[in-house]
Structure to design on (678 residues):
């Protein structure tokens, strides 16, 4: 059974395990600091012969397939897959899953999708609704630019506060508790925060209040302090949003997480050297970082307790054009290597 | 705990109850046969002063608010809301939920979203992850036409096989077992079926194979016959898809559900008299029908066992323009009035 702790946190008493994780990425991501941690780095963002959308579907398939191979499992073993992406009607995920015969829960959480998928997968394993569940998310720079901003051919200038949508996908396979593997100890589904940010070139600012809200509530409900975690990992606020998060927590909540804070959007690129403006974003960003670097560090027990706080900006091009502010959300997953 | 029966069905042993349900609809729906069953019928699809998207958000809020009022609950009592819609990035739901401070799981299942939301809400209550959960879905004729087909001003002709996107929303509040109320006995998350239908004006045909697959698997896993249910309710195949479903089941699976089959897309309109072509569709169609007519009949025990099979077409305008076939999915929820 799941057990509520405090108001918002759900403890997974059966402690589902992460059986395997895999990440596949594009060119720019493969040139970044995590190259060695990814399972597959394409040398171009043109990953297949089809459209950019089909390239993204291809990446999602790569990540899931590699995660399954590592665990010695096949599609037929999977009880549920929770997956989503940024594309209209989540087609990157659906068009991959349709070839697999896996029971499919389509999610939309924008860049928080990986955390949402891991939270729901964990709940499913914990309750016995599934014995094996996959959580997956993807994004592609070119399909996202076309859909949310301008076609690449237009050659638009990007604002310094803009983040670069990651070409990448991550997948993790969850199963019943195994004391030799990392697991999920608790999850929290976030509430939407909207502080009136309407600048679609500054998603980090739009999402930071939601991240702050989720972190404060999680720490309060679990009666923990920031230093009880080796890492509080947001994904993906980028440079601007990360600074805002630390400031919001310090000034409004008297909470200092700076010693343990990392952000997937800052980890995936070398922001000084790569032309990525304020860092990475997109469903594939936190998915690729968590399913590679973080999973491996948990396996090696270099990290023992990670609070993964996936952040998402719940806007569409239509709402942006209509001048609506950008609502943010953040879901939390407490990852642990503790046996 | 949830218990797997057979390969795909998940039994909810704690039998979560449907505490209340509500539906709000637009003009054409209010002129149809279910007028008296809906909680709120607007006399125009221009439900608020804002955009069509904002009108849809308004409808979603109406349905949720009425469901909460009936049960004497407020937003603050809700542990989780599972909601989704057809709009890009599911903004109809997000822009309603952002004003409520409820923990939000964003779903995308196209027209199957209500079934998906009810299945996940049921699982959450069953496992103790939530004490009170909302499931909600919405659609709006005008926002859907603009996004998926043509702006209304264009005055495009609709094909006879096309369904009319329902302007409507439905919400149901789920809680722990109460023997005086209808409940959920089992759920099944569907797999995607794609038989190569690429005609975006014939969604019923694209979804019928998925509905057939889910119905056959559900009956096999639970060892039931069609006549063990008072109603097998698909939502929403419309006229064309319903005929195809019966034919597929009879010819390929030797299963005859015609005596108990109904479809939300056929129930919501008077197809003979209203200019709705092949019937209703959209996330709001099955949501509005299940949360009004079906919920009331279960309450009055005029129906005792209903297999609600929500169907969705997982395409986007981009995939349609790229010539991709339309993948269909169907999720099942076994609703019961049995104490």
């Amino acid at each position: 059974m799941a057990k509520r702790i405090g108001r918002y946190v759900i403890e997974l008493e059966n402690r589902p395990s992460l059986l395997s994780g895999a990440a596949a990425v594009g060119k720019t991501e493969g040139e970044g600091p995590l190259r060695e941690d990814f399972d597959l780095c394409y040398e171009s963002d043109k990953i297949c012969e089809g459209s950019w959308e089909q390239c993204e579907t291809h990446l999602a398939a790569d990540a899931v397939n590699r995660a399954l191979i590592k665990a010695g499992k096949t599609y037929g073993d999977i009880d549920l897959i929770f997956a989503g992406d940024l594309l209209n009607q989540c087609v990157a995920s659906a068009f991959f899953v349709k070839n697999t015969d896996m029971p499919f829960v389509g999610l939309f959480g924008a860049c928080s999708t990986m955390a949402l998928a891991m939270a729901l997968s964990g709940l499913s394993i914990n309750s016995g609704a599934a014995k094996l569940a996959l959580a997956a998310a993807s994004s592609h720079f070119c399909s996202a630019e076309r859909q949310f901003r301008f076609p690449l051919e237009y050659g638009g200038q990007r604002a310094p506060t803009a983040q670069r949508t990651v070409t990448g996908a991550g997948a993790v396979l969850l199963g019943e508790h195994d004391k030799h593997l990392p697991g999920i100890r608790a999850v929290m589904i976030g509430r939407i925060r909207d502080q009136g940010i309407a600048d679609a070139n500054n998603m980090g600012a739009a999402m930071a209040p939601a991240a702050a809200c989720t972190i404060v509530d999680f720490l309060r409900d679990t009666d923990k302090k920031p230093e009880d975690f080796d890492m509080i990992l947001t994904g993906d606020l980028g440079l601007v949003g990360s600074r805002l998060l630390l400031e919001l927590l310090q000034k409004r909540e008297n909470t200092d997480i700076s010693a343990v804070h990392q952000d997937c959007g800052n980890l995936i690129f070398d922001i000084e050297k790569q032309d990525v403006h304020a860092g990475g974003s997109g469903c594939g960003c936190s998915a690729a970082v968590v399913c590679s670097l973080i999973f491996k560090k948990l396996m090696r027990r270099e990290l023992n307790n990670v609070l993964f706080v996936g952040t998402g900006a719940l806007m569409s091009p239509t709402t942006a054009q209509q001048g609506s502010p950008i609502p943010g959300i953040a879901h939390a997953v407490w990852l642990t290597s503790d046996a």
User: Anything to note?
Assistant: The mean pLDDT of chain A is 96. Chain A touches chain B through 59 residues (CB under 8 Å). DSSP finds ten helices and 15 strands in chain A. The radius of gyration of chain A is 18 Å.
